[in-house]
Amino acid sequence: MTPEEFRQYGRQVVDRIADYLAGVEQYPVRSAVRPGDVRAQLPASPPERGEPYDDVLADLDRVLLPGVTHWQHPNFFAYFPSNTSGPSILGDLLSAGLGVQGMVWATSPAATELETVVVDWLAELLDLPAHFRTDSRGGGVIQDSASSAALVAVLAALHRASGGKVGADGITGRYTMYVSSQTHSSLEKAGRIAGLGAANVRSVDVDPETLEMNPAHLRALIEQDVAAGATPALVCATIGTTSTTAVDPVRAIGEICREHGIWLHVDAAYAGVAAVCPELRWINDGVAEYADSYATNPHKWLLTNFDCGVLWVADRRPLIDALSILPEYLRNPASESGQVIDYRDWQVPLGRRFRALKLWSVIRWYGAEGLREHIRTGVALAQELAALVAADPDFELRQHHPFGLVCFRPLRTDALELMERVNSSGQLYLTHTKIGDEVWLRMAIGSPATTSAHVATAWETLQTAGKRISPGRR
Ligand code: PLP
Which parts of the sequence carry N6-(pyridoxal phosphate)lysine (predicted)? Predict the structure, then answer.
């Protein structure tokens, strides 16, 4: 593709994206295609000869768009939001255009140094402790996901708990880590990948009402494991669990970790970015004193398209020591000078995209003020929805909804049937969770396109659908 052809198609693509975002409401939120529908319309083999880019764009409309679920739709309330925004898309486009691979400082100094600046900026915006900043012992790094952040936290914790032996000898003793039934599955997966074994990923009880981790049970499990000869390596506390946005008591958990020298990882993948607002900073109580690592995802609720997860550590040494291997082909004077950061040592892959560009674009475009407004709008809309649910005797509201997620359940109809009915209508999209044996519906608000009117209409749609389903079934 010549630069002129690129210019021509590039304009078309940008126009299409702008049209798409402006008109996203015309699409059914959840794709209605059946398994295999998209694939069946695509040739089984690649073309022998290059094709005009117009044909690629035509297939986007004809084949792919019907198979797209519209995450940027104002009525997308499923899972957690995965927002994008103009500046984020432009930042990612620039990253693709520059085609930089920033595995070490020397392979593109700006990629590393912008990342350092941006993760420090975000730490400041979220009022995270000074020791998470790069000019201290700690620092931040952009990962592809909170799952990767969890994995490297587990590896660093194992490194520290074993005094570096795990890296040399593999896991020889019994190391344990602690999660709850509400912890995201990526922590258990990280334990598995790290070779801990399922039995050593211990599940701490939660309070049956609030679903917060029970510190007394955590202490009991740790003491039991230590008495049995195990070495506890990591505890994960969650700020904003995936199921209901429960907030674990980080301070109480941290005190126990401190007593036993255990690494405390805080998973704030969804809710952490809410701390741009001073009134929501209570969520981080105990983080400054006790957290060894902290992860949050701008790619969920901070207008930055997937993928962009940020991990901070209070002390970068165990992380780097756990992950750094220096083959001859990566040696270079800058790395050897000790004056630069090589973020390849802070993550699993070697290669790194220039992800900082999109986060930088977002922070510069919106400013702290704009980011706060975005979070406050999501929280306010969630409060509006909660009030609508509370006023309807056919539904039960879950009282905890400090962020953008509201959980509720229908009292006279089957929750899953109701959910499927509205989801298949294409008008809105929501998902569910289970608390004990009860199914609860989750509506997560967070798209910058969602307004009060969308929330009110979504609620009416649910009410009407509920009335159409035969009563008495739950
Ligand atoms: N942790 C929590 C609390 C989450 O809610 C999620 C995803 O929803 C994750 C971790 C995993 O995030 P990622 O997709 O970035 O790995």
Answer: 300
